[in-house]
Amino acid sequence: MKKLTRSTTDRWIAGVCAGIGEYFEVDPNLIRVIWIVLSVFTSVFPGVIIYILLWIILPEDGEACPTDAPAGA
Q: Where are the domains of the chain?
């Protein structure tokens, strides 16, 4: 099952846009451009807040999620 994570290989700031691009199998640069355009048209603040929240919430690619813990742990 595919999981949404932050990219560790193709990152400019935190890997959020690259992770979204990998998840939807779209070029990460396209996601970055869309993110910037939407942020500019929504007065920048909401786009920055959403990005920071995703930075905090999304695990990095390769990090273990709490649900991935072994049954006996």
A: 1-60
